[in-house]
Write the structure tokens for this entry.
Amino acid sequence: MSQDHNKSRRHFLGQAAATTAVIAPGITLMTIAQANQDQPHGASSSKRWGMLVDTNKCTDGCTDCVSACQQENGWGDGSSDESLSNPQQKAQWIRTVTIRDKQTGHTNQLPMMCQHCESPACVDVCPTGASMKRVDGIVLVDKHICIGCRYCMMACPYKARSFVHESLHDQKSNSPRGKGTVEACTMCVHRVDHGDQPACVEKCSSGAMMFGDLNDPNSDISKKLAEVDSTQIRADLGLNPSIRYSGI
Amino acid sequence: MLSQMLKQISRQRVTVVALVLGSLMGYASIAQSGDRDGVRSSISPNAGDSCVRETSWMRRNHMELLQHDRDRTLRQGIRSVDGSIKGCVECHVQQDDHGNTVAINAENQFCSSCHAFTSVSIDCFECHATTPDSVKRAAK
Ligand code: SF4
């Protein structure tokens, strides 16, 4: 989408929003209260949402973040679906990975999910435009137009995406998911848009995960990143992920 | 001979036009009298006083509204929109006699009854939740 096209579309949407109040007399108080919490203009390019994981705090064997994601987004144990798929086929939005230093034997556990790259390989290869990056850096799949070709799954160096192999009936209302489409961590975009934190960050009992705006030098996460040594996984690929790890 | 043929053709035409008109009027009157059978106008106790647009407008154009606003929500993160399918479900979902919530796309429920009547299949619920979260669902 060209920049100009974007602009005119936004202009049009702006006008449409201005006229809505006139043509929709039936707006209830509930809708207005809801609207105030949201960002009325949506995602902003002045922000870049990211996370910092302190792998020294991440406790071996803990799966708080995984279960929080399952309950929030309705996959794995958070859903009664996918009974026909085998374990390799089942959706996995976030998983824990244990890395081991061969020389010392020291192990570290860390959560692995969509790394919300600045230059996402999935978006590059997607033939339909379904894989997309929001202006605030969150990488999503538009399942309305995903054709399930799975190019993005092949392209992703983090194995972050899953494909739904069977019909589902037990979705969460904030996380639509369905057969024949690809899915991954959304950074809990529905919560972030309401000013909340992703479910994994909120539920991590050891406080190993931090979420915030990487563009804002005064955010907690930016201050922490300036202070501690952190790294991106497969930084050599130059994709510039929004998820950073310290302690590895 | 020729005039007779012409007459017959024009008579056939009149019949075709009358048939088409008749079916159109029939459709319009059905579309307008959706309240006839209780199910099609069903709203749940958690609904407000009115829909996001006039009912007659919604009957014909709800899909345009949903399609427009889905892109705004997903791609631009604008969540205070009228065309929210979550909103449709929250207001129009029904409970059965045991107090369990019935999926909105189940037979004779709000979405499915009209779509079955007009022979339009709905793909929305391949992915979208058919009941609000944290309710007790009726067994299928
Ligand atoms: S599976 Fe869907 S999101 Fe992935 S590349 Fe194909 S169309 Fe794009």
Q: What stands out?
A: The radius of gyration of chain A is 19 Å.
